[in-house]
Design brief:
The structure holds two protein chains of two kinds. Chain A is an alpha+beta fold. Chain A is built from five helices and five strands, in the order H-H-H-H-E-E-E-H-E-E. In chain A, strand 2 and strand 3 form a beta hairpin. Chain A is elongated. The N and C termini of chain A lie far apart (59 Å). Chain B folds into two domains: 39 residues, no CATH class; 130 residues, no CATH class. Chain B is 11% helix and 37% strand. Chain B contains four helices and 21 strands. Classes of the chains: A alpha+beta, B mainly beta.
Chain lengths: 154, 227
């Protein structure tokens, strides 16, 4: 009887911990919502410790399901593992695909309209332009210009 | 635009969150979270560090190409081109809501400004007014500064102004300094006259929305054109 209550408590704890770690950061760090510096710091700390928290939750849930072997506990364990899996997804890179391998072409060959705005850098004698229309989608481009590693952001 | 080498470690950044309408990035090497707007690490092993500043200009492609014919341009990624912003997206964004306002008489949250943070002070110049004036002489923290609009009527650069400058309508030059009468081009270099070959010290002027500039520069002053 004792162990049944313990088992349920453990499962509930695993569910709550995993759901909190998944939802709280996304709740805080979302568009069109003001983020105060303290809650942002907390949300980011949750994100950074999340992989460990998820692993512990999943292990706990699976352990309970392995011992109890009731349908409900097995379903709950599956749910915890699902939540843990979801937390691996970077929703921001889902919304705005990263530009993993930036490619470039000489200015003369570009079909870009003369009116398009670009972010222009000049380093070590090398000039590079990042059209804003692409940057406002990808947001982050890791690059090397004139031997200097830079990150273009918009 | 930031350098991505910190303490000899080369970082690779990923988009990691929206942060008051700017964004957060995470480096895959240490898992540290950085603020895009300030280049500062706010959570993680490298917390407290700041990325090296990289100077950049926002120019029209035609103007940039004329200045740097040998330069290279980032290519569109075919798979996502349909998601890219339209040319006039900054005009359409003016009507989008903001989470912070800082509205005041004459300043709407999404008014476009040219923000200058230099010499320990911050000053915002309403973009439309600067474009109309073509050349603005002002002071930031007591230092004389000039903002000049390029031949495309859209790109703007800022320089330290050792003396008074006037806008001219030359072919390669667009301004003249009062002291030597030399002609200067949009890159801030003298192409004619006693100062030929010299270049003015460039000052970073960043295009930003008023609410965003004001949020990160609470002590900013605002330039207004003389009537």
């Amino acid at each position: 009887m004792h162990s049944k209550r313990t088992a349920i408590a453990a499962m509930v704890a695993a569910l709550i911990l995993s759901l909190f770690c998944l939802i709280y950061p996304v709740y805080v760090i979302r568009p069109f919502r003001y983020q105060g510096p303290r809650e942002l710091a907390v949300a980011l700390a949750v994100v950074r410790y999340r992989p460990l928290a998820m692993l512990l939750s999943a292990l706990l849930a699976v352990a309970v399901a392995a011992v109890c072997r009731r349908v409900l506990t097995v379903l709950a364990a599956v749910a915890v593992c699902l939540v843990a899996g979801l937390s691996r997804i970077n929703v921001y890179e889902l919304m705005f695909h990263p530009l993993d391998r930036p490619a470039f072409q000489p200015a003369a060959q570009s079909k870009l309209d003369g009116d398009e705005k670009v972010l222009a850098v000049s380093i070590g004698g090398k000039a590079r332009a990042y059209p804003i229309r692409g940057m406002s989608y990808h947001h982050v481009v890791n690059d090397v210009v004139g031997g200097v590693p830079i990150v273009a952001t918009y | 635009m930031w350098g991505r080498e910190v303490d000899g470690l080369r970082l690779t950044f990923h988009l990691a969150g929206i942060n008051n309408q700017n964004f957060l990035m995470r480096d895959e090497e240490t898992g540290t979270y950085w603020q895009q707007i300030s280049g500062r690490a706010i959570s993680g092993p490298l917390s407290g560090q700041t990325l090296p500043v990289v100077r950049f200009d926002e120019l029209t492609f035609a103007l940039w190409k004329s200045e740097q014919p040998g330069g290279t341009v980032l290519r569109d990624v075919a798979a996502y081109v349909s998601d890219y912003a339209r040319k006039d997206w900054d005009v359409r964004m003016r009507k989008a809501p903001t989470v912070l306002s800082y509205a005041q008489p004459g300043l709407a949250p999404r008014d476009l400004m040219l923000g200058v943070a230099a010499f320990g002070a911050a000053r915002a110049f309403p973009y439309d007014a600067v474009v109309k004036e073509k050349l603005v002489l002002d002071r930031v923290a007591g230092q004389p500064v000039l903002l000049v609009v390029g031949p495309d009527g859209q790109s703007v650069r800022a320089f330290r102004a050792p003396s008074d400058f006037y806008r001219t309508a030359g072919s390669s030059a667009l301004m003249m300094d009062a002291t030597t009468g030399s002609q200067w081009n949009f890159q801030g270099c003298s192409v004619e006259g006693p100062s030929k070959g010299a270049c003015l010290e460039s000052v970073a002027a960043i295009k930003d929305y008023w609410f965003d500039w004001r949020h990160y520069h609470p002590d900013t002053t605002v330039w207004t054109p003389r009537r």
